[in-house]
UniProtKB/TrEMBL annotation:
The lineage of its organism: Eukaryota, Viridiplantae, Streptophyta, Embryophyta, Tracheophyta. Pfam families: Neprosin (PF03080). InterPro entries: Glutamic_endopeptidase, Neprosin. This is Neprosin. Residues 58-307 form the Neprosin PEP catalytic domain.
Length: 308
């Protein structure tokens, strides 16, 4: 039996990543309730279809997917990851997806456990072409799903939900979300939190440790990537902001300051770790080191010659 938790044991830490988050309080629920997406039959069917195609972040060899990002090279253990991700509007067809996320995971032989959260544009899944926040997990016995499609994620926040459309900004405005996946030292549950710079962080909810058989105690790999899922025809969608990264920070999709949480639950900067760069199609996408509070820039236009 799982005992419901209303907040993590680290509920009142100082902000560990500075940066504005654009995941605003879109919904205010009455006491005793939380926001949950209505799982229509069509939404469930689409989510099941995309679950089968979803990128396994622990390998760079997933059919129809392309990635640009970084991950740790040693085998942990890790207790979490924190990062700021710029958010962009893209023209994505209904048989494609483009997203950016943080993740934690472990794998052995043909078995994997992982958790991801970030933002995604997927018209088939969400019903429109806007950027949505999302979560995805894969656990014991191959179980797992997007958001709250299946039993697993426990929504706790009454104002910030795991999955929802991210607000549009006036022309010229820049959007970003700052998110974390962090294991609770007392319970072992994996929490996702909306990191705020000038107000208290919002603990959205958690994936109970009982869902997993490889990451119930810790994770071996953590990372941050931009990813795409090509259409069945082989046409790959744009990634990031749809442009190759340049020296112009404002003109590139960005991953800001990234921090990892070590086995002792200590938050450390990414500069204290050796990171592996991941880029599997330099014809269509790019990856460029950042400066100061930007870890890296990434993205590209996609196309029909990106490989499989």
């Amino acid at each position: 039996m799982h005992l419901l938790k209303l907040e993590p044991s680290f509920a009142k830490p100082k902000n560990q990543v500075k940066g504005e988050s654009e995941r605003k309080n879109i919904i205010e629920c009455p006491n005793g309730t939380v926001p949950i997406i209505r799982n229509t039959k069509k939404y469930v069917a689409n989510a099941q279809y995309w679950t089968e195609k979803h990128l396994n972040p622990l390998t760079t060899d997933s059919h129809g997917t392309h990635i640009a990002g970084v991950r740790t090279t040693d085998q942990g253990p890790y207790r979490g990851v924190i990062a700021s991700l710029s958010v962009h509007d893209l023209n994505i067809s209904r048989d494609q997806a483009s997203y950016a996320h943080i993740y934690i995971g472990s794998g052995i032989y043909n078995k994997v456990n992982f958790i991801q959260t970030g933002w995604m544009i997927n018209p088939s899944l969400f019903g429109d072409g806007r950027a949505w926040s999302y979560g995805f997990w894969k656990g014991a016995n191959g179980a797992g799903c997007y958001n709250t499609i299946c039993r697993g994620f426990v929504q706790v926040s009454k104002t910030d939900h795991l999955s929802g459309p991210l607000p549009q900004l006036p022309a010229g405005g820049e959007r970003a979300i700052s998110v974390s996946i962090q294991q609770d030292k007392k319970t072992g549950n994996w929490w996702t939190t909306d990191i705020r710079s000038n107000e208290p962080d919002v603990h959205i909810g958690y994936w109970p440790k009982e869902l997993f058989d490889l990451i119930s105690k810790s994770a071996n790999i953590v990372g941050v990537t931009g990813s795409v899922q090509a259409s069945p025809s082989g046409q790959s969608p744009p990634m990031g902001n749809g442009h190759f990264p340049t020296d112009d920070d404002a003109g590139s999709a960005r991953v800001g300051e990234v921090k990892f949480i070590d086995n002792d639950f200590v938050v450390k900067g990414s500069d204290q770790y050796k990171l592996e760069k991941l880029l599997d199609s330099n014809k269509c996408y790019g990856l460029k080191d950042g400066k100061k509070l930007i870890l890296f820039k990434y993205g590209g236009p996609g196309g029909n010659s990106c490989g499989i």
